[in-house]
C-alpha cells in the first residue's frame, strides 16, 4: 500500500485531540453543572464528545482516527466529570452558610482557595489511584463498564459497520422521542404517571412495595448492556423492597400512617415525596443500611484483590527498571515514579487545602489528609467497581460518608470537611471516569499510558471551571446570594441532602448502627464466591427501587434474548441499540433542560 | 442451589431485616440485634459450606479449565499459522479476518478466564490472563487501524499480538514443567 496516510504515524495523542477535548470538556462541564443543580444528577460527556470528535476529526479535518477520537473523549469526559464531584458537595456549603445567617447565626467562614486546591488534589489523586487497578478490573475481572462499551461502539461504528450504526441511530431516535414525551409530560396522568415515574400499583399494591417504575429507556439500556452480571443488583432491590419493607410494615416498625394507601399523593410529585411510609422506609432504614453494605462489600473486595494489586505494582516497578530512565512512554502504564510523585504531590495539596480552610491545626490537617487519601482510595475502588458492574455511580453516598468522616476527625469544622469532601468526590468521579475510558481504550486498541497522560495533564481544569460556575450562579441571586437552592429554579437536591446530613451531625444524629450492621452484611456478601455481591446489593438498597426495577428489566431482557438468539446477537444488535438508547436520552434530556431553563430566564 | 447457598441466603435475609429496624429513642442499636447476630451466624455457616462445595467442584472446574486451555492453545496455533499470511492482506480483508478470528477464538476463550485462574492460582493465572488481555487489545488495535486504513500500524500491532500470545504459551508451558502431573 502506498497511500500517503500509510507513511504517517498512526494518530493517537495529538494536539488536535488535546485541544478539541479541552474545549468540549469545558463546555460540557458548564452545561452539566447547571443541569445537575436542577436535576440532581449529572450526565457523562463521553458519548457527546465521541460523536462530536468523529464529526470534527474525521469529517472536517479528514485525518482523525478511532484511537485519536478516544483521546479526545477521554479528555473531555475527564474535565466534565470533575464538575460532578463539585456540584454534589460544594453548593451545600453556600446553602448552609446562608441558612445559618438567616437563622441569626454567624454562618460559616470559608474561602474558595482551599476548595480549589482540594479539587485539584482530588483530580490528580483520582487518576493516579486508579492506575494500579486497571489490570485487575479490565484485564482480569473484565468488568463491563457499560458506558465505556457504548462509547467504544460509537467510536468503531463511525468508520465501519453501517448496520450497527443504523441500529444505534434507531435506538437514539426512540429514546430521544420518548424523552421529549416524558419531559413535556404529554402522557402525565394524575395518580398514574408523573415526573417520568409510572405508578404500577394498579390500586392494589401498597406503598411499601415501592410499586413505581422510572420510565427511562437509558436505565433499561444500562441493564441490557450489563445482562446476567447486573442481576444481583436487581436482587438487592427486590430484597430491599419486596422483603425488608413489607416485613417492616407488617411488624409495625414504621411510624403509624393514616393509611397504607397505594400512592395516594403520587400526583404531587415523586413517590419519595408523596408517601410518608416510603419516606421512612427509604430514608431511615434501607438507604443507610445500603450505604453500610456497600462499604463492607467493597472492603472485602479490597482484601480479595490484594494479589492482583500487588501484581500491578510489581509490573509497574519492573517496567521502571527495564526502561532505565523510568520514562517508558511507549509502555502500557504511566511509570511508577510518576504515579508515586503525582500521588504524594496531591497529598501535599490536600494538606494545604485542609490547613488553609481555617480553624484547623497542622496535626489535624496532616491527619485528615492522610486519612482522607486512604478513604479516597477505598471510595474510588467502590465507585469504580460499582460503575464497572452496573454503570451506576454511588457518588452521592460517598460524599455523605466523606464529609461525615471528616467532621468527626476535624471537630465538626464544616468548611475544612467540605474541602476533603470536594477532593474525595472529584477523585472518585475521576477514577470511575478514567476506568470507563480505559475500558473504551481496551476495546478499540488504545494505549492506556496515552489516555493516562492525557487525563493526568488536564484533569485539574474541570475543578476550576465547576467551582467558578457554582460561585457565579450563587452570586447571581438577589443581593449577591441565593442563586441556587430551595425555592429557586436550581434546587440543588443532592447538596440539599448533604446539607441535611451536616445539620444532623451538628445536632448529634448519625445512623451508626446502620453503617456498622450494613458493613458486616456487606463483608459477608463480599466473601461469597460470587464476584461483587456486596457492592451490588448495597448499591441496590441505596437507590430508589423505581430505578433498580427498570435496570432489572433490562438485565432479564438481555438474558432472555441471548438465550434465544445466541451470544453474537449481543454484539451485533443489542450493544449498538442499547448504546443508541443511552445516548439519545442523555443528549435530549440535557438539551430539553437547557431549553426550558432558557425559556424561563434562568435562576 | 446447594445447602450452603440456601443457608447463606436465609442468614442474609434475616440479618438485613433485623438490621433495617431503627433504634428506639435514646438507644444506639435496634432491639433486633440478637436476631441480626443469629442471621450472621447462619450466614457464616452457609458461607463455609458454600466455599467447601465450590472446592468439591474442583473436578468439573478442572475440566472447564482444560477446555479453556484447549481453546487458548487453538487460538495461539491458529494465530501463529495464519498470521504470516495475514501480512499479505489489505485493510478491508484484514479487518474482516480479525473480526472473524475474535468471534471464533478469542471471545470463547475469554469466557473461561475464571476457570483458568482457578486452575493456575491467582498469581500465575493473573499473569496468563494479563498477557492474553494485552494480545486481545493489540488485536483490537489491528481492527481500528484497518478501519482507519492504516495498514502499517495494523501489521505492527498484529506482530505485537502474536508475541503476546506466544508469551502466554510459554507461561503455560513453564507452569506445566513445574507441575507435570496436571493433564490437559
Question: In words, what does this structure look like?
Answer:
The complex is a heterodimer of chains A (603) and B (184). By secondary structure, chain A is mostly helical. Helices cover 72% and strands 1% of the residues of chain A. Chain A has a 3-stranded antiparallel sheet with strand order 1-2-3. In chain A, helix 7 packs across helix 23, helix 15 runs parallel beside helix 19 and helix 22 runs antiparallel to helix 23. The N terminus of chain A is likely disordered. By secondary structure, chain B is mostly helical. In chain B, helix 3 packs antiparallel against helix 4. The longest helix of chain B is centred in the C-terminal third of the chain and has 35 residues. The C terminus of chain B is likely disordered. At the A-B interface, helix 6, helix 10, helix 12, helix 16 and helix 20 of A face helix 1, helix 2, helix 4, helix 5 and helix 6 of B.
Give the topology.
The complex is a heterodimer of chains A (603) and B (184).
Chain A: H1 15-39, H2 46-60, H3 66-87, H4 90-102, H5 112-130, H6 134-140, H7 146-157, H8 162-184, E1 193-194, E2 197-199, E3 212-214, H9 217-226, H10 231-250, H11 271-274, H12 276-323, H13 336-356, H14 362-390, H15 395-409, H16 414-444, H17 448-458, H18 460-475, H19 493-506, H20 512-527, H21 533-542, H22 545-565, H23 568-600
Antiparallel strand pairs in A: 1-2, 2-3
Chain B: H1 3-20, H2 33-56, H3 58-86, H4 91-110, H5 113-147, H6 151-178
Amino acid at each position: 500500500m502506498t497511500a500517503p496516510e500509510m507513511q504517517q504515524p498512526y494518530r493517537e495523542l495529538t494536539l488536535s485531540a488535546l485541544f478539541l477535548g479541552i474545549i468540549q470538556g469545558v463546555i460540557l462541564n458548564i452545561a452539566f453543572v447547571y443541569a445537575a443543580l436542577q436535576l440532581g444528577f449529572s450526565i457523562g460527556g463521553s458519548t457527546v464528545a465521541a460523536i462530536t470528535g468523529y464529526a470534527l476529526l474525521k469529517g472536517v479535518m479528514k485525518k482523525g482516527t478511532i484511537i485519536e477520537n478516544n483521546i479526545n473523549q477521554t479528555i473531555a469526559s475527564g474535565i466534565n466529570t470533575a464538575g460532578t464531584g463539585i456540584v454534589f458537595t460544594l453548593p451545600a456549603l453556600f446553602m448552609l452558610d446562608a441558612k445559618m445567617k438567616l437563622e441569626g447565626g454567624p454562618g460559616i467562614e470559608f474561602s474558595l482557595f482551599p476548595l480549589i486546591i482540594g479539587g485539584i488534589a482530588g483530580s490528580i489523586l483520582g487518576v493516579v489511584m486508579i492506575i494500579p487497578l486497571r489490570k485487575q478490573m479490565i484485564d482480569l475481572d473484565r468488568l463491563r463498564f457499560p458506558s465505556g462499551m457504548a462509547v467504544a461502539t460509537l467510536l468503531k461504528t463511525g468508520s465501519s459497520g453501517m448496520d450497527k450504526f443504523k441500529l444505534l441511530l434507531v435506538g437514539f431516535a426512540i429514546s430521544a422521542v420518548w424523552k421529549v414525551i416524558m419531559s413535556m409530560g404529554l402522557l402525565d396522568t394524575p395518580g398514574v404517571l408523573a415526573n417520568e415515574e409510572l405508578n404500577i400499583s394498579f390500586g392494589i399494591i401498597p406503598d411499601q412495595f415501592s410499586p413505581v417504575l422510572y420510565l427511562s429507556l437509558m436505565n433499561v439500556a444500562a441493564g441490557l448492556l450489563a445482562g446476567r452480571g447486573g442481576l444481583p443488583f436487581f436482587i438487592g432491590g427486590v430484597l430491599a423492597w419486596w422483603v425488608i419493607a413489607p416485613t417492616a410494615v407488617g411488624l409495625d416498625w414504621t411510624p403509624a400512617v393514616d393509611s397504607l394507601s397505594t400512592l395516594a399523593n403520587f400526583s404531587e410529585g415523586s413517590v419519595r415525596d408523596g408517601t410518608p411510609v416510603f419516606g421512612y422506609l427509604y430514608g431511615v432504614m434501607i438507604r443507610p443500611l445500603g450505604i453500610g453494605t456497600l462499604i463492607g462489600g467493597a472492603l472485602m473486595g479490597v482484601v480479595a484483590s490484594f494479589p492482583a494489586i500487588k501484581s500491578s505494582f510489581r509490573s509497574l516497578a519492573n517496567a521502571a527498571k527495564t526502561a532505565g530512565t523510568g520514562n517508558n512512554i511507549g509502555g502500557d502504564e504511566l511509570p511508577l515514579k510518576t504515579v508515586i510523585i503525582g500521588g504524594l504531590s496531591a497529598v501535599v495539596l490536600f494538606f494545604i487545602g485542609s490547613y488553609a480552610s481555617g480553624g484547623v491545626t497542622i496535626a489535624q490537617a496532616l491527619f485528615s489528609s492522610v486519612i482522607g487519601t486512604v478513604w479516597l482510595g477505598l471510595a474510588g475502588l467502590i465507585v469504580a467497581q460499582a460503575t464497572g458492574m452496573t454503570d451506576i455511580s454511588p457518588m452521592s453516598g460517598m460524599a455523605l460518608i466523606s464529609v461525615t468522616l471528616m467532621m468527626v476527625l476535624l471537630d465538626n469544622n464544616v468548611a475544612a470537611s467540605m474541602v476533603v469532601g470536594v477532593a474525595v468526590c472529584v477523585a472518585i468521579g475521576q477514577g470511575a471516569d478514567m476506568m470507563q475510558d480505559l475500558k473504551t481504550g481496551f476495546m478499540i486498541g488504545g494505549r492506556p499510558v496515552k489516555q493516562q497522560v492525557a487525563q493526568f495533564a488536564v484533569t485539574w481544569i474541570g475543578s476550576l471551571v465547576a467551582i467558578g460556575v457554582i460561585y457565579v450562579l450563587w452570586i447571581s441571586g438577589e443581593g449577591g446570594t441565593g442563586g441556587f437552592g430551595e425555592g429557586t429554579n436550581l434546587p440543588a437536591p443532592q447538596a440539599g441532602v448533604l446539607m441535611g446530613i451536616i445539620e444532623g451531625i451538628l445536632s448529634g444524629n448519625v445512623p451508626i448502627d446502620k453503617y456498622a450492621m450494613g458493613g458486616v452484611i456487606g463483608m459477608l456478601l463480599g466473601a461469597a464466591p460470587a464476584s461483587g455481591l456486596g457492592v451490588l446489593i448495597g448499591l441496590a438498597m441505596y437507590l430508589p427501587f423505581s430505578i433498580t426495577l427498570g435496570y432489572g428489566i433490562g438485565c432479564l431482557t438481555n438474558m432472555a434474548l441471548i438465550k434465544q438468539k445466541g451470544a453474537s446477537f449481543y454484539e451485533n444488535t443489542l450493544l449498538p441499540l442499547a448504546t443508541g438508547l443511552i445516548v439519545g436520552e442523555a443528549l435530549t434530556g440535557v438539551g430539553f433542560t437547557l431549553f426550558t431553563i432558557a425559556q424561563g430566564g434562568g435562576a | 442451589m446447594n445447602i450452603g447457598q440456601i443457608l447463606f441466603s436465609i442468614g442474609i435475609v434475616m440479618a438485613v431485616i433485623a438490621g433495617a429496624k431503627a433504634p428506639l429513642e435514646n438507644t444506639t442499636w435496634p432491639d433486633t440485634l440478637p436476631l441480626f447476630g443469629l442471621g450472621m451466624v447462619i450466614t457464616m455457616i452457609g458461607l463455609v459450606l458454600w466455599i467447601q462445595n465450590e472446592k468439591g467442584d474442583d473436578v468439573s472446574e478442572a475440566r472447564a479449565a482444560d477446555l479453556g486451555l484447549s481453546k487458548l492453545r487453538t487460538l495461539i496455533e491458529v494465530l501463529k499459522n495464519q498470521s504470516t499470511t495475514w501480512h499479505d492482506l489489505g485493510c478491508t480483508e484484514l479487518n474482516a479476518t480479525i473480526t472473524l478470528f475474535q468471534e471464533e477464538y478469542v471471545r470463547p476463550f475469554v469466557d473461561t478466564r475464571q476457570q483458568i485462574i482457578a486452575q493456575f492460582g491467582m498469581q500465575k493465572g493473573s499473569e496468563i490472563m494479563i498477557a492474553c488481555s494485552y494480545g486481545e487489545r493489540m488485536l483490537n488495535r489491528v481492527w481500528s487501524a484497518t478501519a482507519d486504513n492504516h495498514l502499517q500500524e495494523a501489521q505492527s500491532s498484529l506482530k505485537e499480538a502474536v508475541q503476546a500470545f506466544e508469551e502466554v504459551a510459554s507461561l503455560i508451558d513453564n507452569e506445566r514443567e513445574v507441575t507435570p502431573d496436571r493433564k490437559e
